[in-house]
Design a protein that fits this description.
The complex is a heterodimer. By secondary structure, chain A is mainly β. Chain A is built from no helices and 13 strands. The chains are: A mainly beta, B mainly beta.
Chain lengths: 115, 112
């Protein structure tokens, strides 16, 4: 088991609603990345947070936003949910130091269903 | 063209078989490569890194061909417990940050 925990594990939302997913990073890690995995696909990079700031972003619209807190935990917020947002949302934590990062450890994911 | 492409699968093999998965990547500047394993409805877990010289971990052998931008994973003496989806992963180090780029995965089913 990694030290990365996500909550909730499952969630059902209605189209148009907003959702917040949470991730606690592994002890000693300072970077959190979020991924979206649709059914039958590999995970797709959403964005990364380092030192409480967005460090990089994938090809996702602005209604996907995030936060990182001083304890390095993180939130992913999605506004105006669409049916296609139904997916497994994974967070991964790593330690970024001196321009190099360690292996990323994934949480168990939050399975979001939009109806 | 997808940045990382894999054999679509699924691969259905008997216990004891040898099975090989292939993967190609589009960015010739990529430096780090991995195979991850993902069990049904679980998170991906690192199986092994892939080095230019090739590397082996027990029954698993990974190869990298930079000239062809090709990565492979060989599993010998397949076990029932090897049944999972295998994800080919390239680390992108562009833009001042690192991110993992995943293939769509190849599903392996090992049967008795």
């Amino acid at each position: 088991e990694t030290g990365v925990t996500q909550s909730p594990t499952h969630l059902i939302k209605t189209r148009g609603q907003q959702v917040t997913l949470r991730c606690s990073s592994q002890s000693g890690h300072n970077t959190v990345s979020w991924y979206q995995q649709a059914l039958g696909q590999g995970p797709q990079f959403i964005f990364q947070y380092y030192r409480e700031e967005e460090n990089g972003r994938g090809n996702f619209p602005p209604r996907f936003s995030g936060l990182q807190f001083p304890n390095y935990s993180s939130e992913l917020n999605v506004n105006a949910l669409e049916l296609d947002d139904s997916a497994l949302y994974l967070c991964a934590s790593s330690l970024l130091f001196g321009g190099a990062d360690t292996e990323a450890f994934f949480g168990q994911g939050t399975r979001l269903t939009v109806v | 063209r997808k940045e990382v492409e894999q054999d679509p699968g699924p691969f259905n093999v008997p216990e004891g078989a040898t099975v090989a998965f292939n993967c190609t990547y589009s960015n010739s500047a990529s430096q780090s490569f991995f195979w991850y394993r993902q069990d049904c409805r679980k998170e991906p877990k690192l199986l092994m890194s892939v080095y230019s010289s090739g590397n082996e971990d027990g029954r698993f052998t990974a190869q990298l061909n930079r000239a062809s931008q090709y990565i492979s994973l060989l599993i010998r003496d397949s076990k029932l417990s090897d049944s999972a989806t295998y994800l080919c992963v390239v680390k992108s180090e562009a833009g001042g940050y690192n991110k993992l780029i995943f293939g769509a995965g190849t599903r392996l089913a090992v049967h008795p």
